[in-house]
Amino acid sequence: MKNSIRVFFFGALMLTTAGNKILAQDTAQYKVLPPVTVTATTTKVPEKVWKSFGNYFTGAYDSRFYKINKDYLAKYMLNDQQNRALFTKRGNLVYHISYGYEKNLPEELRKQVKTSYYDYSITKAVKVTEADRLIWVVSLENDKRFLLVRLEDGEMEEVQQLDKK
After folding, report:
1. 3-class secondary structure, 2
2. Which range of residues forms the domain containing residue 163?
3. What is the pLDDT of residues 27-65, one digit of tens each?
4. The pTM is what?
5. How many domains does the chain have?
6. Coil, helix or strand for 149?
């Protein structure tokens, strides 16, 4: 009986020690972002937001609105692409994101990317419009790596590179 209590106690001690090491994290390397509060889907959108949305995105369908802090996020489809747009409560557009593919990338930008990365395939093309800025973020892939490239004002910048294993 004493031996089984010792074995049980020793086993519990080992599991506790191992569990603490597994759950321990080094948080010094992680940046903590401010919290974003998303409330439930709302059907009551301020008139200014609804009008502004209709003016900017004629032909949008499957739209859903979410309240994020004091702003309104619209998730919708337009031209067979997923889109997101953030509006202030006064109806001002903060940003617009359109998720697409190579076929959605303007021809001159596609040529620019393909000239520099001729042995890569374009897998995604995301268009971000914010204030007076138009930014394209393009995902590329070949048999060895994944790349993320950013295009703005004719400039192209490689943002991230991941090797495949």
Report:
1. helix
2. 101-165
3. 455 567 666 655 555 458 999 999 999 999 999 999 999
4. 0.71
5. 1
6. strand
